[in-house]
Each structure stands twice: as C-alpha cells, then as structure tokens.
Amino acid sequence: MSQEQSSSGAVTARVVIVGAGFGGLATAKALAGSEVAVTLIDQHNYHLFVPLLYQVATAALSPADIAEPIRHILSGAPNVNVVMGRVTGIDQGARQVLLADGSGIAYDRLVIATGSTSTYFGHDAWAPHAASLKSLEEARTIRTRVLQAFERAERTQDPAERARLMTIVVVGGGPTGVEMAGSIAELAHHALARDFRHIDPTTARVILVEAGPRLLTAFPEALAAYALGSLERLGVSVMTGQAVQDIDAEGVTLAGRVVPAATVIWGAGVRASPAAGWLGVTPDRNGRIPVEPDLSVTGCPDVFALGDTALIRDAAGEPLPGLAQVAQQQGSHLGRALREALTQGKPLPSFTFQNRGNAAIVGRHAAIFDFGRGRRLKGFPAWLLWAAVHVVLLVDFAQRTRVSLQWLWRYLTYRRGARLITAPPAR
Ligand SMILES: Cc1cc2nc3c(=O)[nH]c(=O)nc-3n(C[C@H](O)[C@H](O)[C@H](O)COP(=O)(O)OP(=O)(O)OC[C@H]3O[C@@H](n4cnc5c(N)ncnc54)[C@H](O)[C@@H]3O)c2cc1C
Known about the structure:
By secondary structure, this protein is α/β, with parallel strands linked by helices.
C-alpha cells in the first residue's frame, strides 16, 4: 500500500522527513494542518539552534536555552508524527526509511534534511584532542575542557604546564572559529578574571589559526579586517597562513613547531551527512546530494534533499552556502510545494534563495553583517541586529525571553552563569 487512509476515510499521502534541524522542521511546519500524513524523524528529541552553540561552549548560555523538544514545537500539528530514531539507510525499491533499531517507515515522498558533520580532512586521529562544535554534547565538552584546564592550572606548580593549560587554540578562521575565539577570550579575560587565587586568567592565551591568507573568506575584505581588529582588541592572537600539521595531547604543531595547548577547538571544516550513500547518488566533493531546482534529488523524483546536505546552485552557478537561513527557506518552500502538489495536484515550483544577510559575531558587542550587493553593517549596530534576529528565530517564547535576559545580564555585568563542569570529577 503506498498511501494510508485518514480517519475520515480519505486517502492520505505520506511524507517522511529525516532531520528536525532548520530545514526539516520548516518543512514539517509548512505541512502542519494539511491533509498530508507527515512523519518527522530525528536522532535527538530536540531541535537545536546551532548558531548559538558557541555560547553554550563558552558558558554564556545553558543547553536548554538553545534546544527545544520537537514534540513540543509540533504539539499543535495532529497530522505530524514525531519519531525519535537514527536513520541508517533508505530502501528506495520498498520506499522505506531504515532505522538503527531495525524498523522501517514507509513513504510516498521523502525529504532528507540531515545537515552536516565536522571533518578533519582525513586526520581523524586529531578528533579526540580537538573538539568540534556541531552538537550540544560537543559544546559541553568544550566548556568542560576549558574550565577544567583553568582548574588544573590553578593547582599546578609547573610554570610551563600552567602556560599550556592556559592556552586555547581555535583552528579555522570562518564564522565558527571567529565567534569561538572572541567568546573564549572574553570568558578568560573578563568572566573568569576574579575567580581564581593562584592564576591570572587575563594572561590566558587564545590563538586563532587559519590556513588561508585571511579570516572570514565568505565576507568582504573590509568586514574581515574589522573582525580581525576586534579580535585583537579582545586579546586573541590571530595566525593566518598557518596550516595545522598535527594535533595531539600536547598541543598543535604549526610550521614544525609545537604550540603547547591543553584545549584545542576545531572549527575548520564541515562535510554533508552520509545521506548521498543511502540513495546511491554521486555527491559533490563535500558529500552533498545534487538536487534539481524544485529540490528533488537528481534521478530520484520522489526524494528531496535540502539544507547542508544538498547541493543547489544560485543563478550565478555558485553553490548556496551552508546556512540556517538557506535550510529554513528551502524547508518552508518545499513544505508548501508538497502540500499543494499532494492535495491539489499542483506542479512543484523552483526554489529561489532570498539572502537576508550573513553575520559573524566578534565578542559581546561587535558583529559584521553582509547583505550582499555592497550593503554592510559592522560594530555595535550589527551586534544589536544579530541579537534581535537570533532571539526572534529562537523557537519558543520562553526561550526568547530567557536568552534575551541572559544576554542583557551578561552585557551589563560580563557574568556567565553556565560555568559548570559536567564531566565526571577529576582525579
Ligand atoms: C557552530 C556553528 C555556527 C553556525 N552559525 C550560523 C549562523 O550564525 N547563521 C547561519 O545561518 N548558519 C549558521 N550555521 C550553519 C547552520 O547551523 C546550518 O547551515 C544549518 O543548521 C543547516 O540546517 P539543516 O536543516 O540542513 O541541518 P541541521 O540543522 O544540522 O539539522 C540536521 C538534523 O538532522 C538530524 N540527523 C542527522 N543525521 C541523522 C540520522 N542519521 N538520523 C536521524 N536524524 C539525523 C540531526 O540530529 C539534526 O537535528 C552554523 C553552524 C555551526 C556548526
């Protein structure tokens, strides 16, 4: 049977969405309340607001501030069934999504929105020493490592070891690396400044390493230069043109020299989820699934892909960037399109991306915004705009209020309330 019968007796098409991130959730919301039977599958029971992960990693926000249960978000949508499970494959012949627990979920239309993962460019041995920032677990790992290193520095008698413990290296000069480096510098140099008795956290070294010639290559040069100046004012040492040669428990090797560092953070590369392999399609070099203008997977008309895991080009032939706004707009577009196609027989329209501005934050009161076509904003007004946009985009009203108040509190006091080490006690 390819379709299911609703309680009214009408035949209902089944849309299965894999991934409740920005793209998948927007698709489900656009299909909510329709005559379509939607199943939304995610390996977590929460939707994660990824752009604020770095604030959890640097103790500015708590995990609950940036995550919301998927069931709660969709509680008013009776036609959307939420399934917590990890997808491991797709049987296109049987039109089934396969889950890790051995079960399968049948679909008429399938939407793949499984996002991306970090990549260490073939150096997987670096992963245990250089935490990346893609999940709440990783954000908590970074927070724990930074705070634990300061605790150990407070107790050691060895000056070299103390210096190593108080050195944090962030790898990757894109928005993630810039935001992490700025936020860690503020944590160490301001929030922790008066917490210790035997060390001076204001002397902590925060180093941002970038292999390319400059930071923030996706931004115009003038904005990147402004970000560089802001980072340096926060006390971050920026090293461009430095490819990392090795990362181990001692630190990071650059140009044949080891920079001793107890905490290394990886913000250098992402790769699409392995979904191309599930479909047997040839991905691009970043693992993305090529899709048609209507977001259907090339060669698989009943399967759609969007967000970080899909490759779609703009009018100039450039791939759309891996941004939340791209995924969200694609999800809303596809949800509406599927709704009209499945309930009214309309054809699927092409997707067009509307650039609402690309931003990066540098510390607690500076940001850069690039709206394209030469329209830009920087400094405190850009930070205010970024904060307003991100608060509005946070899913739930309670979270918006909580996060706004926390930001205001932090802004006025430099305090960070989430300075908790949640790992097992140190020996
Ligand atoms: C640190 C960081 C900061 C960022 N900052 C910004 C920013 O400021 N602005 C911006 O626009 N973009 C930002 N981005 C990029 C943005 O987060 C992504 O482009 C966006 O999340 C992509 O949305 P998506 O729906 O494709 O994937 P995601 O939002 O990553 O969602 C994927 C979902 O799929 C689920 N999933 C994955 N695999 C499986 C599986 N096998 N089975 C079941 N479920 C699965 C995951 O649990 C997740 O819920 C940032 C990214 C990072 C890492």
